[in-house]
Amino acid sequence: MSDRIIDVEKTHMNLQPQAEAESERRTRSKLEPHREAIFALRRKHWTHRQIAEWLNEHGVTITLSSVHRFCERAIARRPRNGSLLPVAESFSIQTPPTKNNQHRFNLEI
pTM above 0.70? Predict the structure, then answer.
């Protein structure tokens, strides 16, 4: 039964000093400084494997899967069509004029 007793002092300890002592984690990809070079090669139809090999030859140690994930994330983050219009305003459907309010396709023969 004593192993189930929770020490109240341990549950209320201050973790702030331990958190401050932790080392900072990298939040950005090491490929970020090479973004333009990577996409210049992609525009030339280079594969992710070729880009990874090229980067390794030029001093950036990276794997094929890292290049692939970086490109996929970068593509997903880019804005589409340069504008952020709401869906209702981004397009409109216009119906062609009809005679006497008839349907566009006359199915009755």
Answer: no
